[in-house]
Amino acid sequence: xxxxxxxxxxxxxxxxxxxxxxxxxxxxxxxxxxxxxxxxxxxxxxxxxxxxxxxxxxxxxxxxxxxxxxxxxxxxxxxxxxxxxxxxxxxxxxxxxxxxxxxxxxxxxxxxxxxxxxxxxxxxxxxxxxxxxxxxxxxxxxxxxxxxxxxxxxxxxxxxxxxxxxxxxxxxxxxxxxxxxxxxxx
Length: 186
What we know:
Number of helices: 4
Largest sheet: 5 strands, antiparallel
Order of helices and strands: HEEHHEEEH
Strand content: 15-25%
Number of strands: 5
Distance between the termini: 67 Å
Structural class: alpha+beta
Radius of gyration: 27 Å
């Protein structure tokens, strides 16, 4: 059983292995071609015009958030199958992460889709648009220790102030303090 840190490090390394050019066997040290499923993999990276797209991963509790971003034409965005294409892209990225994680650690990674993807399309020009999508996946085998309920902000602040004030109680008077003791007028 892998620890939480080992799982997170394995996923982070799997995502790092998806750098631009890693899919082409001519540019990898072992000569092996891999496919992530991104549009930038199509064609030759030196001769052909480049399509800008990529992905990143974030961790939120027991979830993995895969963020995809890329350029698309307005014609592609206006298709009826646009959302399913983006969801398919996120699924291909998750499949790549599982495969790469297995290659790195020797263990299997379980990712369970958690809800629909959040898709944001922004128009760059009359022809091109910028797409950002986030897919949330539950990481199998990752259990965080949530035994102690989290303290509220006020409780933590009160504890910090109390501990600070307790530092002054019973403190010795500095040698250079020549003030007289205060009189209590009770």
